Amino acid sequence: MPATLGEQVLERISDAEKQYARLVLVVGPPGTGKTKALRPLAEENSFRYVDVGLDLARALLDLSERERARRARRILEELTGNSTPVVVLDNIEVLFDVTLRLEPLGCLQSLARNRTIVAAWNGEVSEGHLTYALPGHPEFKRYPAASLLIVSAIVDMKVC
């Protein structure tokens, strides 16, 4: 029987400790159980859990578009804090907002230099590349997947 998504993430967290950027990506399309697995995993292991979509958007709400782009990365760093060795980032879609001018994967890798970051990534791994959105969409991103620690959320889907 295959390990649950949470168990696979814990295994990858161990692997991440040997990496320069301790980043674990939990990859799958919306509805594949990433949040359902990551929220309890964070609670059970005393990992910091950050709903990036909610928390970052709330922090940026009163800022002008220019100020949002200038301060988004610093605010994200503050949200992740240094209080726990592992931080789980969920609902990271706001990082792809073109007006923020962030490079999402680079931003996550930078955060993962001082602590292990587990991030839920809405996308897929196909033909050796990690993608977000579809080609032609303004938020489309495509990265080589070879050096990334990835857990596929699709394997955890169960047919009832």
Write a structural description.
This protein is an alpha/beta fold and 160 residues long. The chain has helices at residues 5-16, 34-45, 52-60, 65-80, 104-111, and strands at 23-28, 48-51, 86-90, 116-122, 124-126, 129-132, 141-144, 149-152. The strands form two sheets. A five-stranded parallel sheet has the order 2-3-4-1-8. Helix 5 (104-111) links the parallel strand 3 and strand 4 (116-122). Helix 3 (52-60) crosses helix 4. Residues 156-160 have low confidence and may be disordered.
Would you spell out the secondary-structure blueprint of this structure?
Blueprint: H1 5-16, E1 23-28, H2 34-45, E2 48-51, H3 52-60, H4 65-80, E3 86-90, H5 104-111, E4 116-122, E5 124-126, E6 129-132, E7 141-144, E8 149-152
Parallel strand pairs: 1-4, 1-8, 2-3, 3-4
Antiparallel strand pairs: 5-6, 6-7
Helix pairs in contact: 3-4
Q: Which percent bin holds the helix content?
A: 25-40%
Number of strands: 8
Oligomer: single chain
Beta-strand share of residues: 15-25%
Largest sheet features = 5 strands, parallel
- Compute the CA-based radius of gyration: 15 Å
Shape: globular
- Low-confidence residue ranges: 156-160
User: Average pLDDT across residues?
Assistant: 92
What is the helix/strand order?
HEHEHHEHEEEEE
Structural class: alpha/beta
